[in-house]
From TrEMBL, chain A:
Database matches in InterPro entries: CoA_trans_fam_I, NagB/RpiA_transferase-like
Annotated Pfam families: CoA_trans
Protein name: CoA synthetase
The species this protein was found in: Roseomonas alba
Automatic annotation (TrEMBL), chain B:
InterPro entries: CoA_trans_fam_I (IPR004165), NagB/RpiA_transferase-like (IPR037171)
Protein known as: CoA synthetase
Organism of derivation: Roseomonas alba
Pfam families per UniProt: CoA_trans
PANTHER family on file: ACETATE COA-TRANSFERASE YDIF, CHOLESTEROL RING-CLEAVING HYDROLASE IPDB SUBUNIT
Amino acid sequence: MMLPSVDALAAQVPDGALVALPPDNSLPSVALAKALIRKGARGLRLLGVPVSGFATDILIGAGCVAEVETSAVSLGEAGFAPRFTAALKAGSIRLRDATCPAIHSMLQASEKGIPFMPLRGIIGSDILANRPDWKVIPNPFATEGEDPIVLLPAKQPDFAVFHAAMADSEGNVWLGRRRECATIAHASKAALVTVERVVEGNFLEDEKLASGAISATYVTATAIAERGARPAALLDEYGFDQAYVSDYARAAKTEEGFRAWLDREVYGAAQKVAAE
Amino acid sequence: MSIALEERLAATLARLIMDPSAPPARHIAVGAASPIPAAACWLVKLMGHPVRLSLLHKRSGNPFTEGTRELFDLTGQGRIDLFFLGGGQIDGQANLNLVGTGDWPGKAVRFPGSFGSAFMYFMTPRTILFREEHSPRVLVEKVDNISAPGVSPPGVFRRGTAQALVTGKCVFRFHPDRARFSLESLHPGETVETVREATGFDFDVPASVPTTPDPTEAELALLRGAVKAEMVETYPEFCTRVWGHDAAAA
């Protein structure tokens, strides 16, 4: 389903939804995050796959988020994520810490429709001590000793949200080698994808494009958002905008600075679009 | 041009990577915020050692075509030989805290989070710990929260532990059998006493502690030339800071 705007895409997401987002190196839809802020989303539960970045920080700052499950929240070279840090201190979000392969494994369990997935490591980490939903069992196939191993429950997000380079006439999307977005789409009940452009044809008919495509089977709705990953990079099309993120990191150190940034970069942009 | 601390640390890490007493490093993965370890790996490779480098955050030519889980799948199989980890706090048993200080999940000071440490630390045959800041707030007697434990009880599957901890002041060797660090070498200008003052945990000191060797002329030439050229796309700010403002144009 092709929707007319990123704001129409955001309208699909009810308050309280569990939304899976890739981090800044992996095609986040910052355009859709900004649209969720404009629509006044509340109570969202965000899943960082496997970590969280810019989009998560602005959603938290704008008061859209009740809970974050992730393996880290960071702005990369620009440092700690300021609104995440402030919200955690204020107690206004719940945080469930994980570790990267655990998040991938929980999504892979959903992909397969199985109730859990085992994972090595983690035993002795305080992450495990703070995750009553993760269990340790003796490896039932062990040939000697107990061989304790962690079991992780399947995680099925309500929405996968990410950005892709293009969609085709059939509703397939293409994002090259960033296959973690495919895992999120496969595992989620619905996938909302912003794209730079829509092209004629069918990616699945083209051997070179098919391996970087996500079939329309998994894609619920798309909308065009040019530069929709900005300030994150899009494959070989545009780079990471370090200056924009560094400017944000400085502004968002304070609540007032963040509000001014929102007015300029999120609400201001919407007014400009509406006036055009 | 004098030797920058970053150059000294990269050369020191490169020597640890090639340590003949450690398990072989045929395939090394380097994470996001790790420009100095990345420089060390490029140095090893460009000196002609046959090593496969998988840089997680390389935008062009990224080695992973099945998604970011591929790093962890490879590591789970034992196909990544060496990884680098740091921590907001590192303690005398090589426990790592990337979560934060105070009560869980970092009620006092929150760090970004544990990333893949709770898995990678277990599943690679060796880990080099790297943290440039060497102070009592980073190197603590006991971490407030454990992202990844330094050693594991018998019976818990684990391929390896820390090999060493490299800081801005010294190199510590880790001994998993007794879960303790020993002082391996001191960077120029440091003494056992200055290191002791800056370290919150107790460690072993051999009768004589050598000085960490300077990078060789050949290493410096590589770092400032071919290594920089490989690094500039992924770590532009680092290259500009260490090697001058023309780095991004190189």
